Amino acid sequence: MQAKKGIEIDSISRGSLAEKSGFLPGDILLSINSHKLCDPIDFMFYSNNDDLEIEVEREGEKINFHIARKDGEEFGMEFKPFKAMICKNNCIFCFVKQLPRGL
Q: Is pTM beyond 0.90 here?
């Protein structure tokens, strides 16, 4: 299950940028360039940069990684499953509410 804060790394590909940078399975990614991470979508959005400062929690300690990433270079890490949040606002413009029943 997903960590309460940040996103937990499940696995890392051999030879990947994540492995070369020193990330380990079980690390919890807390932020990228001071932007807090809640889910893998946040990771994809904020990691789309070539100069990254990533804060990680490992065994209760916070560690910072500075990464120079090439444009389009994959990190090579998979995240543990997370529970998606479901909005309960019932906005009139919500596309989810406009879907036919059962979808």
A: no
Q: What is the torsion angle, in degrees rounded to the nearest 10, for the CA atoms of residue 17, residue 6, residue 8 and residue 20?
A: 20
Handedness of CA 40, 43, 44, 45 (dihedral sign): positive
Shortest CA distance to 76 belongs to which of 9, 16, 8?
16
Domain 7-79 classified CATH 2.30.42.10? Answer: yes
Domain boundaries, the chain: 7-79
* Token pair of 35 as six digits: 């932007």
Question: Model confidence over 16-73: pLDDT tens digits?
Answer: 999 999 999 999 999 999 999 999 999 999 999 889 999 999 999 999 999 999 888 8
Rounded to whole angstroms, how far apart are CA atoms 28 and 87?
25
Listed in sequence order, the residues at least 6 apart from 87 whose beta carbon sits closer than 8 Å to its beta carbon are 94, 96
